[in-house]
Specification:
single chain; alpha/beta; Rossmann fold; six-stranded mixed sheet; 9 helices; 37% helix; 27% strand; binds adenosine-5'-triphosphate
Length: 242
């Protein structure tokens, strides 16, 4: 396996009965890349992501994630990736500090390391004043930033983000993306789904899924040239409308 390619996918397919939710997709993601995984509702993004994070077995095809085979080594994949979804969030009834300690423990960090991580995270995110407050009392944008940082607590090679910024204002989304850039600059690969087309512009490369297939994959600049579009929203609309 090529070490620069931390995700390698070949003809990956998922069927639910006769329905093909993910239809023969092939792509690679490079180390440290911010890879945008776009598609309309129901295009198959979450189904594809679930196969890549080792919680759903593909029907056909091949995929290696962080060097491990999704068919035979799903447990190792789980140890080497971070995952953040809108649904899987932090515990509202634990404080900021308690959440960090809890997830640090789940990922097997030592007490000393958890303490260090908690201090760094709280400082970096400017959460010093609310470290002992229940997460449930924080604004959504703060929760998302904390949730992202917690998904990186075990220094995973790749982090999968499923619509991480849903429902927050543009300024908070921008701050969230600064955290993403920082992680990518430190070598973490980012695999992100989003419905916000301005966020697609921030990605190194973007794939666009339509009805289970990847219909386009390139840098935002090249996609705009290819589709003679002014912005990623136009690219998306041209593809989604066929
Ligand atoms: N367990 C399942 N059984 C049957 N069909 C499913 C199952 N999971 C997903 N599907 C179908 O597969 C298709 C792709 O769904 P998926 O959730 O992957 O789309 P998505 O691109 O992530 O959409 P969204 O942006 O709304 O999250 C949809 O038509 C969905 O109804």
């Amino acid at each position: 396996m090529n070490n620069d390619k931390v995700i390698q996918v070949e003809s990956l397919t998922k069927m639910f009965g006769d329905f093909i939710a993910v239809n023969d997709i092939t792509f690679d993601v490079n180390k440290g890349e911010i890879f945008g995984f776009l598609g309309a509702n129901g295009a198959g993004k979450t189904t594809a992501m679930k196969m890549l994070i080792g919680i759903s077995k593909p029907t056909f095809g091949k995929a290696h994630v962080a060097g491990f085979d999704v068919f035979t080594d799903a447990e190792n994949i789980k140890k080497n990736i971070g995952y953040m979804s809108q649904k899987f969030a932090l515990y509202d009834d634990l404080t900021v500090k308690e959440n960090i300690t809890f997830f640090g423990g789940i990922y097997g960090l030592s007490r000393k390391r958890i303490k260090e991580k908690a201090n760094t995270l709280i400082e970096e995110l400017g959460l010093g004043n609310v470290a002992n407050q229940l997460v449930g009392s924080l604004p959504l944008g703060w929760k998302q930033k904390l949730s992202f940082s917690v998904s990186l607590i075990h220094d995973p090679k790749i982090v999968f983000l499923d619509e991480p910024t849903g429902g927050v204002d543009p300024i908070t989304r921008r701050q969230f993306w600064e955290l993403i850039y920082k992680a990518a600059n430190q070598g973490t690969t980012i695999f992100v789904t989003t419905h916000y087309m301005d966020e697609a512009e921030y990605c190194d490369r973007v794939s666009i899924m339509v009805n289970g297939k990847i219909e386009a994959l390139d840098t935002p600049k090249k996609l705009k040239e290819q589709f003679k579009a002014a912005n990623m929203n136009d690219v998306f609309l041209k593809l989604a409308r066929g």
